[in-house]
């Protein structure tokens, strides 16, 4: 073995661990998103949930995209309540692995 083999193998192992530790991407359809303040309000609510990594709001499309860590799950009842409390109407959600 040359001196580059062990660091290469270590990176290979770490890369495969990260690939296995993927979370979930959620896309929610929401009515009532009209302004940047609406987006900020939604982002703040999601950032309070443990395991939420990224939040993106598309105002024109009425979409909220959220990436969560492995082991974190967003449920329909949870989303209905979150959006109702924020003053928006939750219409549905799709999810896929990251």
Task: Describe the protein's architecture and organization.
- A 4-stranded antiparallel β-sheet has the order 2-3-1-4, covered by helices on one side.
- The chain has helices spanning 5-20, 36-47, 76-86, and strands at 24-31, 52-58, 63-68, 89-97.
- It has one domain: Alpha-Beta Plaits, CATH 3.30.70.
- The protein is globular and about 55 Å long.
- The protein has 3 helices and 4 strands, in the order αβαββαβ.
- Helices cover 40% and strands 31% of the residues.
Structural class: alpha+beta
How far apart are the first and last residues' alpha carbons, in Å?
35 Å
Second rung of CATH, namely the architecture: 2-Layer Sandwich
Report Rg. Answer: 18 Å
**CATH class, anyone?**
Alpha Beta
The average pLDDT value, as a whole number, equals 87
Q: What kind of sheet is the major sheet?
A: 4 strands, antiparallel
* Helicity, as a percent range: 25-40%
**Largest sheet, spatial ordering of strands:** 2-3-1-4
Whole-number total of structural domains: 1
- Unreliable runs, pLDDT <50, ≥5 residues? none
- Residue fraction in strands: 25-35%
| CATH topology call | Alpha-Beta Plaits
What's the total helix number? 3
The SSE order reads HEHEEHE
- Anisotropy-based shape: globular
The number of E-state strands comes to 4
């Amino acid at each position: 073995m040359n001196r580059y083999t062990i660091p290469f193998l270590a990176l290979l192992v770490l890369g495969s661990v990260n690939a296995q530790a993927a979370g979930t991407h959620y896309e929610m359809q929401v009515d009532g998103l009209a302004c940047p303040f609406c987006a900020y309000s939604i982002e703040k609510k999601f950032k309070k949930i443990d395991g939420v990594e990224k939040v993106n709001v598309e105002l024109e499309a009425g979409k909220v995209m959220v990436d969560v860590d492995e082991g974190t799950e967003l449920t329909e009842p949870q989303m209905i309540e979150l959006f109702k409390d924020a003053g928006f109407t939750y219409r549905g959600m799709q999810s896929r692995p990251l």
